[in-house]
UniProtKB/TrEMBL annotation:
Protein name: histidine kinase
InterPro entries, sorted: HATPase_C_sf, HATPase_dom, Sensor_HK_TwoCompSys
Top-level lineage group: Bacteria
EC number: 2.7.13.3
Keywords: Kinase, Membrane, Transferase, Transmembrane, Transmembrane helix, Two-component regulatory system
Amino acid sequence: MPEAGSPAPPRALVRTLLRSGTPAEPAEADDGNLAAVGDATLARASRYWVVVPLAYRIAAFVKVFIGFTAANGGLGLGPVLGATLFAVVANTAATVWVLRAGGLRARVTGRALALDLAVGVVLNFAVAATAPASVQPFAVDVSWTWLVSGVAMWAGTCGLPAALWLFAAAVPLRAALTLAGGLPLSHQLALTRSIGCLVALAVAIVIAVAILILLGVGTRFAVDIGLRRGREAERRRTRRIMHDSVLQTLEALAIAAPGDDAQAAARLSELRSVARAQAAELRQRITEPVPNGSTRGFAVELADVATEMARDGLRTQLVAADFADDRKVSQDRRTALVEAVREALRNAVKHSGTNQVVLRVEERDGGIAVVARDQGQGFDVRDRPPGFGISQSIVARLAEVGGRGTVDSQPGRGTRVTMWVPG
């Protein structure tokens, strides 16, 4: 038994597609259920499925018309030319309508397919009854193109059973077309062309079903990959929240300070206050919706981070005189850059051995760059591998939005952290 939200086994999915065709689009899809999300995605994608047989119909009518005229000259040209012009114009209009309407919606699919099939039947009878008897089987070959693509639409939309029913109905229909042209059923040419028409229907059904299966399985795999990546991104976000907030606070609380024993009551009250503030911040970051945009400038957001770090004793000099905040950077990238800067300043507080940092923001390479520079004790980047703060809260966070982060440091010469996101 597959677990809830896991992808359906390929065999089960294929059987469902063959039996029912593309699934109906639900009003709301459960984001935690992979099968439901996959069905909803497939239903939205299949709105445009009919464009394929419509486009095939336009091209195929032109092709078979050219073949008919090459083989028969002007004999029977009138009804065949009329059918071809009608098919090209009607299907071009239908294709434009489907694309402009955002695909073929489920509420009109049944009526649209039934209308399309009825038009095809009428068109075939019109050609069969008006074409000269000597070329009537070839003329019907041209108009039969409409039914070939029509049955393909039914196969892809309603499944294999519906297509097989139509294929069975096509046998007496093809015989009726022969009789409508005044030819006996035993007419050798009519019999041969009738078999060819039925074979074309069978091939169209097979191709339509193959496309349906590829579309369905491909959509399910794509949704599976997307959800897995989304879950992994959420896990990384949770780890960063824990590292950037809770862990930092716990480490700060664990540092011994002069006068702890003499002022135990005051220290306990301070710890409780910090714990309450941290709990409120963590709850807000977990539950609040992701903001769509910020009404404040980027430099102002950096100033807020500098003010926050000042409570931990870090003096930050913000240099942004040459920076024009033109808001060309998306909110996701701005947020990632601000959080990366916050982590860089926290690292300066904990490891640099100095209480001063210069924070410079500038436009660079079509994006925004922020450089955090301190004159602290520094370290050898070759001997000390980057920890979670640098590798995840800075480098990986920026990489996820197309940016980059680099750390340059030498013992006794301070540290420079460069963070950049594209515009």
